């Protein structure tokens, strides 16, 4: 079964809270429900306890999907990471999540508007050798103790951004580590998401969909922009409003089951969230149908 949800970053940003900071949670959830979405990922305005989370989302006919978790496995081993993250892991499990969205954030630059993407961290061979087995072990522990499947989010400005990074990460981690394939982050990084889907279809357990305005991506590269400056300038948009071939993408995932999440961070002053998310939702339903996959409730 494929379900379509959204990340509240479409309404209010987490890395730069003033982007959409004036939009109340209730507006986000009511609009998501009206659009036809079935679930929501975590945002900074959401309830902080699992019981409150279930109750709040339930008011709008929504369920909790998951939430980003920054890991620091280059700095501590899997057992230490697990101990540090236990409250967050329990919160996600008890709120109803089945997957754990994870990204290694040691030395990341994606949250700093003044630091260009060109300064993102590049791992040494020794660092790769440290990170990969730790990520595998962490995924195994998370599954064993919390029942959550770790889905790794490749992301601009982090240690896993390029095609070479993604390939090295996937070949170097074990089966407990699944891939969160993000069409927007792949495209902006110069990676064909269709080819990624074909290559790793058996390990893809979560999908983030956003589109890329290639003209803005080119300006970002030429101007040596930061991730957040690029977002504010409109590098991302919703599925069907940019360069990604979503029908070809979904055709490479004929057996996919799980969530397809609209996660298209934009400046809400320039791109009305309800208008754009509704457009993205309608496009996704059409793309899934054209690809031979049916979006079901």
Automatic annotation (TrEMBL):
Annotated coiled-coil positions are none
Per its UniProt record, what InterPro entries does this chain match? Answer: IolE/MocC, IolE/XylAMocC-like, Xyl_isomerase-like_sf, Xyl_isomerase-like_TIM-brl
> Start and end of every Xylose isomerase-like TIM barrel domain?
30-272
Q: Which PANTHER family match?
A: HYDROXYPYRUVATE ISOMERASE (PTHR12110), INOSOSE DEHYDRATASE (PTHR12110:SF41)
Xref: Pfam families: AP_endonuc_2
* Protein name, per record: 2-keto-myo-inositol dehydratase
